[in-house]
Write a structure and sequence with these properties.
single chain; 95 residues; alpha+beta; three-stranded antiparallel β-sheet; 32% helix; 35% strand; globular
């Protein structure tokens, strides 16, 4: 029973490495992993604006950086869900 518990925890901990495209979020930020082994952690309070243009997600941060994700292989309904999550949680929308 003890070993089974460790296997279950290990399975949930490594879930992000099973899929090529993976998004995980909570109220403070999100992890986006698109066609890469390691993902990009983004805090919602650092995003000032977001745009979804031609299946490219462009996020602008408070530091003047621009983060771009190529979402060409993602289904349209999932694109809309991802954009809606970002839009609802960014500081630009909550001001």
């Amino acid at each position: 029973m003890n070993a089974l518990g460790y296997v279950i925890v290990f399975g949930f901990s490594t879930q992000m490495f099973w899929y090529k495209n993976y998004v995980q979020w909570n109220s403070r930020g999100m992890l986006i992993r698109i066609k890469s082994f390691l993902g990009k952690n983004i805090k919602f309070k650092e995003i000032t604006s977001s745009e979804l243009i031609n299946k490219k997600l462009i996020l602008k941060t408070v530091y003047g950086n621009s983060i771009e994700f190529d979402l060409s292989e993602i289904v349209e309904s999932d694109l809309e869900k991802l954009y809606e999550i970002i839009r609802k949680n960014t500081i630009a929308e909550n001001v």
